[in-house]
């Protein structure tokens, strides 16, 4: 999209079928697969989207432009999304909407305590739920005027983005990660598995994320997750 066309589209009023037209979204999410789902939701809603895959990247974006809506994953490779949410919530010129997302329902309380306007559990795939959540939080008068029919669409991210996520984790897991890195791997894969509706990988990732395991038990859980990732990647290479 050219700069002139982009400026033109951003200055257009919201409409019932594009209720977030004119809005900008910064999604802070390390999973390409989850980010792709949000990109599709924003695209079909008329919003412009930029992505940051870490806290450091998010800060670089925020030094350059001010989004209308910020969507923050609670588990990021260089820290907690709650820290960024807290910073955004305390700013004098606060962004209109701060959404926290996670594949872990247990992050709900921490997200709201940090200052998020709403918490949404992955997967984010219903266009109606996404649009209504954001519209409910926007200042009065910033949404479309008049009645609108709720869409029934469900987005389906590109499978290549899922393969990229799994390949990235497989590479990290081959480098003998420490306990902190294992915790991140488990949370990341739990969110990816929920977005992909992969129940077996989700259960294995959740088991890996649980504390209290002996070294042997942890190694068994780790190897189970690693094996599932390799199996998923082999299945995709065979297609």
TrEMBL record:
Coiled-coil region: none
Short name of any one Pfam family annotated for the protein: Response_reg
Keywords: Phosphoprotein
The organism's place on the tree of life at top rank: Bacteria
Database matches in Gene3D superfamilies: 3.40.50.2300
Residues carrying 4-aspartylphosphate: 73
Matches recorded under SMART domains: REC
Matching InterPro entries: Bact_response_regulator, CheY-like_superfamily, Sig_transdc_resp-reg_receiver
Listed transmembrane segments: none
Residue span, Response regulatory domain: 24-137
Keyword Phosphoprotein tagged: yes
Name under which the protein is recorded: Response regulator
Taxonomic lineage: Bacteria, Pseudomonadati, Pseudomonadota, Alphaproteobacteria, Rhodobacterales
């Amino acid at each position: 999209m050219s700069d002139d066309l982009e400026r033109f589209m951003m200055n257009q009023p919201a409409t019932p079928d594009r209720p977030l037209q004119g809005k900008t979204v910064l999604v802070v999410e390390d999973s390409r697969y989850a980010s792709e789902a949000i990109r599709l939701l924003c695209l079909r809603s008329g919003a412009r989207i930029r992505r940051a895959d870490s806290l450091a990247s998010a800060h670089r974006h925020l030094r350059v432009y001010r989004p209308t809506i910020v969507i923050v994953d609670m588990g990021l490779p260089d820290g907690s999304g709650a820290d960024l949410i807290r910073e955004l919530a305390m700013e004098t010129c606060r962004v209109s909407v701060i959404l926290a997302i996670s594949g872990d329902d247990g992050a709900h309380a921490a997200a709201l305590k940090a200052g998020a306007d709403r918490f949404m559990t992955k997967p984010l795939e219903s266009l109606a739920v996404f649009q209504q959540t954001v519209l409910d939080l926007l200042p009065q008068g910033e949404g479309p005027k008049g009645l609108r029919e709720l869409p029934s669409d469900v987005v389906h991210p590109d499978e290549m983005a899922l393969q990229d996520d799994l390949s990235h984790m497989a590479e990290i897991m081959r480098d003998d990660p420490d306990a902190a890195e294992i915790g991140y791997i488990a949370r990341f894969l739990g969110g990816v598995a929920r977005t992909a509706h992969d129940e077996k990988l989700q259960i294995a990732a959740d088991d890996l994320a649980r504390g209290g395991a002996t070294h042997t038990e942890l190694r068994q859980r780790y190897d189970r997750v690693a094996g599932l990732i390799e199996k998923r990647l082999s299945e995709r290479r065979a297609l």
